[in-house]
Every structure is written in C-alpha cells, then in structure tokens.
Amino acid sequence: MDETQKNKSNNLSEVYDWIQSILFALVFCVLLFVFVVRLVDVVGTSMVPTLQDSDKMVVSNLFYNPKQGDIIIFKKTEFKDEALVKRVIATEGQTIDIDFNKGIVYVDGVALDEPYIADLTQNRIDFDGAQVVPSGCVFVMGDNRNNSSDSRDSRIGMVDKRLIIGKVLLRAFPFSSFGSVY
User: Fold this and answer.
1) Where are the alpha helices (DSSP H) in the chain?
2) Could you tell me where the beta strands, DSSP code E, fall in 95-181?
3) Going edge to edge, which strands form the sheet with 131-132?
4) What distance lies between CA 20 and its chain's CA centroid?
C-alpha cells in the first residue's frame, strides 16, 4: 500500500470515528431528554420573583415524590394547554389554611416562612376555609400569590400527583440566571 492509499484509509477511518461519536452523542442526548430530564418554558408571571416569564427550566420526574416547597411542573389540560409551574405548599394528609386578612398561609396550623413570595396572600379566588389535601394529591400556589391561578382556583384545585411532569432542578436560561431555584 502506497502512502496516498494509507492517508485515504486514515482519513476515512477518522471520518467514521467522528460520525460514530456524533451519533452516540445524539442517541445519548435523546435518551437523556426523553427519560431523565426535560426542558420546560415558564409561561406567565405566577412564579415571580422566583421565575420569570420565558425562563427555561430543567425538570426531572425520575424517582420523584413531591415535597413541601418543591417547584413543580404539571399539566391540567381542563384549565390550560400549557404546563403550569407552581410551588408545592402542602402534600397529602396535611391541612392548608390561609388567613387572607394577614396574608399568611398555614400548613397543619403552622405559619409558613415564605421569603420567596412577591406579596402576602390577599387574593382568595375560590378558597373557602381549611382543607385537608387528599391522598395522592398536592396543594400548589404560585409565588406571585395575588396574580396566580393555583389550587385556590376550583378549576385547578388539588393536583393529582399523576399529573406532575417533574420537579424543577435548575434554571437553564437566561444564562445570567443559570442555577438552582428555591
């Protein structure tokens, strides 16, 4: 084999290696984004100041069980076609109550410390007194309490855990705000 044929063979081998690497990376990314994480856009201002309209979030549902304080994404197609972003306030078996005069949310009789909210909770919507969260459900609210449709709204109500797409792990975009969210 002369030198020209060796170079051609090496070039073809290198091209083959590159194609194989790119295909492997593509398959890996597809599997990652189908089974482990998703990118979801924030639509609206119900989570201000924590999240802004058009933020992109990395969300995962792998081995996830909702906990109080988690920011979740869920679908409630009877209310809206887009996925909704809210904070879990209470989980199954907990009692939620809101004092609208003081703007304070109580879970099991204890006032929540909520440094993440935009304003105190003054907007009642359809909420009518203390409620126990049913089995398999969560009670959610937006951080922009007075401008959020959430579990206080009878159209959303208690959210069935099966409707949860996942927990927000971090904000991916804008890059200036990249990182975890609380």
Assistant:
1) 3-35
2) 95-99, 104-107, 110-111, 131-132, 137-141, 159-160, 164-173
3) 110-111, 104-107, 95-99, 131-132
4) 34
Q: Are 68 and 168 in contact (CB under 8 A)?
A: no
The tally of CA atoms less than 13 A away on the side-chain side of residue 123 is: 17
Active site positions, annotated: 46, 86
Q: What are phi and psi of 176, to 5 degrees?
A: -65, -20
Condensed to tens digits (0 to 9), the pLDDT of residues 48-96 reads 999 999 999 999 988 899 999 999 999 988 888 889 999 999 999 999 9
> Closest by alpha carbon to 123, among 158, 151, 163, 86?
151
Apex CA 59: angle with CA 53 and CA 64, to 5°? 135
Pick from 79, 81, 80, 70: nearest CA to 47: 70
Residues of the chain whose pLDDT is less than 70?
1-2, 8
For residue 97, which amino acid is it?
A: D
Residue found under tokens 């790119």: 22
